[in-house]
Amino acid sequence: MYQEVAENIFLVKIPLPNSPLKFLNSYFIRSNHPDSKNMVIDGGFNHPDCKEAFEKAMDALDFAYENTNFVATHLHGDHFAMFSAMDKEITLFLGRLDLEYLEKKVEKNSAQEVDRSDEISATSALFGMPEEYAEVVMRAQFMQNRNWQTEHIRAIEAGDKFVVGQYSFEAILFKGHTPGHIALYENDKKILICGDHILGKISPNITYWESELDSLGNYLESLFFSKQLHVEKLLCGHRSNEFDMYQRIEEIFDHHTQRLGEVVDILTAESRKMTAFEVASKMTWKVAEDMWSKYSKEQHWFATGEALAHLEYLFKRDKIKKYIDGGTYYYTANETTIDTGGE
Predict the structure, then answer these.
(1) In angstroms, what CA-CA distances link 341 with 134, 323, 338?
(2) Which of 321, 312, 313, 319 is nearest to 339 (CA)?
(3) Three-state SS across 16-55?
(4) How far is CA 266 from CA 48, 70, 211, 231, 248, in A?
(5) Distance set, CA 180 to CA 18, 94, 163, 290 (Å)
(6) Alpha carbon distance 292, 302 (integer Å)
(7) Of the candidates 17, 41, 37, which has an alpha carbon nearest to the alpha carbon of residue 196?
(8) pLDDT for position 120
(9) For residues 10 and 62, is the Cβ–Cβ distance under 8 A?
(10) Is 338 contained in some domain?
(11) How far apart (Å, rounded) are the C-alpha atoms in residues 140 and 144?
């Protein structure tokens, strides 16, 4: 059920139903000190299977809700949704920028009387996806049972300290995977609990959030900062922790460099306006040329978001051109001449 990965730090595998990630790595940190609470980092979907595994771990480790702080490294549902939907009164922390993003989205949707299906339809149109994708995404597990109530959540600022028994963690802002993804670093013990900022066998999904947010640029800056930390034990959000963090960082840098080059090559070869969906369909996924055809529509959604993050990175650095038509983004290589009808 759980594994002690460092003294008084326990890894609990929370199942993620209908997700290719399979499991979330949740970390339970025992205080054993009267002046500090226990801490749990990341919880899982708001789904019965996640709740059952989580409750069993709380009982097995003898963690009481009233004596435990709960931290979500970022706002994605597989880390945050169960915490935000708990019917118990808990102390829940989330990075300030992620919290502000949620608050603005709730306020905007409420003011404009926009429901989630309208929001997803608008995003799929921006991506250049066929209409049927919006309905499929709305039914996906990561969209279910969301609780957007934010009043009870406490904001984490970069540099905030969390004392948990023998540990003193500092919050570090790693923007990119989400607008305000945070990690917890223990300088004396050289432990980094990094959420989805660095993963071993898979590359963290860097997607489009809003046009003013440079998701990939922020992520690469955060990744560079990670290299400066002295880390002896890395604890990730998914799958194995058994890999060399510094080597993995270089592999991720190489991955995105290759991705950016591939995007430019696709636009150059096509010599026409292309949507993010069209570009994504021609990119290499999982080192297999035909992998796109094997992906589900949900996977197409994530892949297109990642393609758009790379397209926006290139556009913001004047490497490609961008056009907006009817709520859809289009891109071309710089040398491509497009008749914009006077635009």
Answers:
(1) 29, 11, 9
(2) 321
(3) CCCCCCCEEEEEEECCCCCCCCEEEECCCCCCHHHHHHHH
(4) 43, 44, 22, 38, 27
(5) 26, 9, 21, 34
(6) 12
(7) 41
(8) 85
(9) no
(10) no
(11) 7
Question: What is the domain extent for residue 93?
Answer: 2-104+144-250
Q: In the chain, which stretches have pLDDT less than 70?
A: 108-116, 141-149, 211, 287-290, 337-343
Q: Which of 331, 279, 327, 323 is nearest to 126 (CA)?
A: 327
DSSP states along 155-204: EEPTT-EEEETTEEEEEEE--SSSTT-EEEEETTTTEEEEETSS-SSSPP
SS (H, E, C) 271-325: CCCECHHHHHHHCCECCECCHHHHCCHHHHHHHHHHHHHHHHHHHHCCCEEEEEE
Residue 45: inside a domain, yes or no?
Answer: yes
Closest CA to 31 of 160, 185, 166, 184: 166
Q: How many domains does the chain have?
A: 2
Q: Cβ neighbours of residue 18 under 8 Å, at least 6 residues apart?
A: 140, 141
What is the H or E stretch that residue 71 is in? strand 68-72
CA 101 to chain CA mean position, Å: 13
Task: In whole angstroms, give the CA distance from residue 248 to residue 250.
Answer: 5
128 assigned to some structural domain: no
CATH number at residue 291: 1.10.10.10
pLDDT tens column, 17-48: 988 899 999 999 999 998 999 999 999 999 99
From the number of C-beta atoms within 10 Å of its C-beta (0-12, 13-18, 19+), residue 3 rates as exposed
Residues 6 or more apart in contact with residue 60 via CB below 8 angstroms: 1, 2
For the segment 107-152, what is each residue's pLDDT rounded down to a tens digit?
766 655 556 677 888 899 999 999 888 888 877 766 665 555 677 8
Q: Which of 232, 250, 268 is the last residue of a domain?
A: 250
Does the pTM of the predicted model rise above 0.85? Answer: yes
d(CA 337, CA 343): 13
Cα 275 from Cα 331, distance rounded (Å): 6
